[in-house]
């Protein structure tokens, strides 16, 4: 792929196709001091105030640096590489890291060791790349300072508060208002499917864990969705088209959102899973359609709960788990409160936090 | 529309159509004490653990209260009305309040007066309904306490923190890093189009405003989108299909997201507008397509900036503006710093906050 100049026009040549680049596209990218803020790279002009009837009057090419002279009297220099890079990245997922499917064989995943100032180091970049590949990451050797989870969240990006507050304590308590606050097993689920928007990433920080059970479990919703797509296309079709209602009711709030259990993007690729069988309400549909839906939901539940797709590990004191709540399901095995204490603190962040930090580090280390 | 019983089956009859309700749909709604938590209405069982081959063995109808006996030995009572209500609401927007289009003629909109404990009162319900109808609402007589905006946000739902912090101060400062922090005019825009997800609702609290300019301006992106759809279908088509990249670059973060300027939902209805002409980057497309895109973007910019669609009003000391950042554009007129001080505090919340409170109040006041 390369840039070509021909009769005062700029072309992009991909080998089998040569396409003129719109002169306004080039004009809009003017980078002179009075047009673009040096610091934040924001335009100092409104492109809608420029006449759209723009053309190029002269082009000088200085070893891949194009000097463009436009008919409205402006000119500036732009590198061919900048144009090519922007073109190559324009239709990609903003972070363009391919998801890697995994199942129970992935139990020996890499853990990352926490260190001071980690948020500005190369290891943070590696950790975030791993997070986008697998949907989760575990850090060890994290301080067990109370509320540190919030500091951690705000050092990547910004904590996403909910009506439960900035963070929540996962600990067995008397008269719990949720199964999470007991010592019972939790089957795989996604968090807050009734929220709009659904929090993107959950962080869980282990302050104390001296019981023998209470292992963390994770399932890759992407792997399971793709499996269903392959083996049970009818189920995949209905799970990705019927919207169920997720509900959460409390004294001062009634939260509801509707979504497919498998949410696809505009190109029919995997986008998000939601699963929380105590909170979901299928609509009244034709009986035959609901028949199929219930069978499909049973199948996805069976796979989510199967040992084949689950990794299981113990969060030790000082471990911190970060997981994609749009891609992964999480749960835990039961434990015995008489053996000791298990105390985790959790909170959420959104994708702008993880992506924003990842892009920053990529820029910083020229990766 | 009514419920009918026929040979141990439950039907929904809409007048011209009679459809059996799937017995599993009914079985899943079991509301006995050992099946449903009285407080949070959450299931105490996993419906995926029930055999899907469920049928009804006996139905007793006691004046619209159905007593259902299933083949797995369970039984419970459910009101016909509950089934009908769930059926009627199942495909509606979760809050089912129709948006009302408005333009500059709407300058005399109703303001709401703040009062103690407003968040649990009927007036809060009216205010939220108005917010969903018009996309914004103004409260007067709010305390001018510093940071009160955060208390306000967390009393509706939960503040949405960003990398700018929990809230931001809009005030003219020396060496500003954004036009917002000058006394210059701001043309209509949406906030944070580069964020993922984009904050849903912006709150702006006026602490001081003793300059003669600095009026707030609002434009209904829904009205303008519908206008373009009607008068310029080709522009509407390209604005709702070409994804542009929105960028925000700072020292410790690089935020990017891609979206159409007019975002439609799965049924091709209005969902969201984004507009921030200093931060958007159109992709390289065929020249003829970009030709059309730039013309279309010029047109929507022209309408957004036209006096025909804009309401303009002054936020007085103690006023609080709440606006839908997915629907509305906001801006301000310029002012003269030598005349006095203009000081606003702003923050964001999400739709789960406004919807969650609205549904709670609806339930509380039986509306």
Notes on the protein architecture:
Two copies of one chain form a homodimer. Chain A has two domains: 2-89, NE0471 N-terminal domain-like; 104-223 and 305-364, Clavaminate synthase-like (Double-stranded beta-helix), CATH 3.60.130.10. Chain A is built from eight helices and 22 strands. Chain A is an alpha+beta fold and 367 residues long. In chain A, strands 7, 8, 9, 10, 12, 20 and 22 form a seven-stranded mixed sheet that branches. A four-stranded antiparallel sheet of chain A has the order 11-21-13-19. The longest helix of chain A is centred in the C-terminal third of the chain and has 18 residues, at 287-304. The interface between A and B is large, with 83 and 83 residues.
Unreliable residue stretches of chain A: none
Strand content of chain A: 25-35%
Summarize the biggest pleated sheet of chain A.
7 strands, mixed
CATH superfamily of the largest domain in chain A: Clavaminate synthase-like
CATH topology of the largest domain in chain A: Double-stranded beta-helix
CA radius of gyration of chain A is 25 Å
> What is the H/E order of chain A?
EEEHEEEHEHEHEEEEEHHEEEEEHEEEEH
How is the quaternary structure best described? homodimer
Strand pairing plus helix content of chain A: what structural class?
A: alpha+beta
How many structural units, i.e. domains of chain A?
2
* DSSP strand tally of chain A: 22
The helix content of chain A is 10-25%
The outline of chain A comes out as globular
User: What is the distance, rounded to the nearest whole angstrom, between the alpha carbons of the first and last residues of chain A?
Assistant: 21 Å
Mean pLDDT of chain A: 94
The CATH first-level class of the largest domain in chain A comes to Alpha Beta
Biggest interface and residues each: A-B, 83 and 83 residues
Q: Number of DSSP helices of chain A?
A: 8
Overall CATH architecture of the largest domain in chain A: 4-Layer Sandwich
């Amino acid at each position: 792929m390369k840039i070509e100049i021909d009769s005062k026009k700029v072309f992009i040549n991909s080998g089998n196709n040569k396409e003129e680049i719109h002169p306004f596209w080039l004009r809009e990218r003017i980078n002179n001091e009075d047009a673009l803020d040096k610091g934040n790279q924001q335009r100092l002009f409104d492109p809608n105030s420029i006449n759209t009837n723009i053309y190029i009057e002269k082009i000088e090419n200085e070893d891949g640096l194009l000097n463009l002279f436009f008919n409205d009297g402006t000119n500036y220099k732009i590198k061919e590489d900048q144009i090519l890079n922007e073109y190559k990245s324009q239709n990609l997922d903003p972070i363009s890291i391919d998801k890697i499917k995994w199942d129970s064989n992935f139990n020996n995943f890499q853990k990352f060791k926490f260190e001071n100032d980690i948020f500005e180091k190369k290891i943070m970049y590696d950790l975030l790349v791993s997070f986008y590949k697998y949907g989760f990451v575990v850090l060890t050797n994290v301080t067990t300072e109370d509320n540190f989870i919030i500091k951690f969240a705000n050092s990547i990006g910004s904590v996403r508060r909910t009506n439960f507050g900035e963070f929540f304590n996962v600990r067995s308590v008397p008269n719990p208002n949720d199964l999470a606050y007991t010592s019972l097993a939790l089957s795989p689920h996604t968090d807050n499917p009734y929220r709009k928007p659904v929090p993107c990433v959950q962080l869980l920080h282990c302050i104390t864990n001296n019981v023998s059970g209470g292992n963390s479990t994770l399932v890759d919703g992407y792997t399971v969705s793709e499996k269903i797509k392959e083996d049970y296309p009818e189920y995949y079709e209905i799970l990705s088209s019927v919207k169920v209602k997720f509900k959460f009711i409390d004294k001062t709030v009634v939260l509801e959102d509707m979504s497919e259990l498998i949410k696809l993007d505009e190109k029919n690729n995997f986008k998000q899973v939601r699963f929380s069988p105590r909170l979901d309400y299928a609509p009244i549909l034709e009986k035959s359609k609901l028949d199929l839906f219930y069978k499909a939901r049973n199948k996805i539940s069976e796979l989510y709960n199967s040992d084949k797709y689950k990794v299981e590990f113990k969060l030790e004191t000082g471990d911190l788990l970060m997981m994609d709540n749009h891609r992964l399901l999480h749960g835990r095995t039961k434990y015995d409160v008489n053996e000791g204490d298990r105390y985790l603190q959790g909170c959420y962040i959104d994708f702008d936090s993880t992506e924003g930090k990842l892009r920053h580090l990529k820029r910083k280390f020229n990766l």
